[in-house]
Amino acid sequence: MPIRIPEQLPAQDVLLGENIFTMDSLRAANQDIRPLEVGILNLMPNKIETEVQLLRLLSNTPLQINVDLIRIDNLAPKHTPQSHMDAFYHDFSSVAAKRYDGLIVTGAPLAHLDYRQVKYWDTMAEILDWSERHVQSTLYLCWAAHAAMYHFFNVERSLRADKLSGVFEHQVLDPHHELLRGFDPYFYAPHSRFGHISCEAYAAVNELKVLARSDEAGAYLAASQDNRKVFVTGHPEYDPETLHEEYQRDLNSETPAVLPQHYYPDDNPILEPKVRWRSHGSLLFTNWLNYCVYQNTPYDLNLLASHAGKRGNK
């Protein structure tokens, strides 16, 4: 959240030069404050686990947030009780008339399917288009980031022969971007995917900018110029044991198991994993909520369509 300081205080220029968000008294006095409305389109089969991971990150902020869990179809989830879905999830059709300050679209285990082969692709495309009219800022995670790149910009992913799995070092490319406020120049984040879109492919889209990348994992964070589309190719929400559980699952399936890189001490899966990404994940979500959502969303969400593209109204 911003620091409110007196106008003309010399510290203001210093703090702004360090990419620290400050707010003068006039702007603070004209703020309209209400709970944020955030939707989560959960595409993961184990929905309860994903809910916990995302809600943990969303809760690490002083902002009050109302959350709607959204499902894309009525098919019975593979790893989630139907009773849970019926009790806590909204069909997209039931919230299609609503407007949201923020929307999170999760990854999905659909790496080897062409987008058009995904059984709910038509609905997915409808939701992506809907988000441009009904959502201030949308955060796309992993598979959803690639799917949104394909839908909005016709950028195709390539598929790796082996899964990219592990915790990789990333470099901040634009330390003055709002999403990266407070980041160290280098940070760690988990990846678990077959899909790949190069940094050059992101950079070729005039509307987008790559904000963080890894020598091993490639582009990690990209955003549109107006911050209404944010693409994260990894999993900042992962729990400490998530990559381990995925690895154990693959060992017991027909999927070739890939030992997660830079995750176990000495690459020994018997040892407890190194956890060095959770503070970055928390900061990324806090920055997204504050700078891409709260600082830009209109107080009256009915004005969202006319408000698109305007900045700094908070």
TrEMBL record:
Main location: cytoplasm
Catalytic function, reaction form: L-homoserine + succinyl-CoA = O-succinyl-L-homoserine + CoA
Localisation per UniProt entry: Cytoplasm
Site residues, Important for substrate specificity: 192
EC numbers on record: 2.3.1.46
Pfam families documented for this protein: HTS (PF04204)
Gene3D superfamilies given in the database record: 3.40.50.880
Species: Salinimonas marina
GO biological process, one term: L-methionine biosynthetic process from homoserine via O-succinyl-L-homoserine and cystathionine
Any GO CC annotation of this UniProt entry: cytoplasm
Protein name (record): Homoserine O-succinyltransferase
MF-aspect GO terms: homoserine O-acetyltransferase activity; homoserine O-succinyltransferase activity
HAMAP family named in the record: MetA_acyltransf
Residues binding substrate, per UniProt: 163, 192, 249
Pathway: Amino-acid biosynthesis; L-methionine biosynthesis via de novo pathway; O-succinyl-L-homoserine from L-homoserine: step 1/1
Described function: Transfers a succinyl group from succinyl-CoA to L-homoserine, forming succinyl-L-homoserine.
UniProt xrefs under NCBIfam families: metA
Site label Important for acyl-CoA specificity, positions: 111
Active-site residue numbers: 142 (acyl-thioester intermediate), 235 (proton acceptor), 237
InterPro entries (UniProt xref): Class_I_gatase-like (IPR029062), HST_MetA (IPR005697), MetA_family (IPR033752)
Similarity annotation: Belongs to the MetA family.
Keywords, sorted A to Z: Acyltransferase, Amino-acid biosynthesis, Cytoplasm, Methionine biosynthesis, Transferase
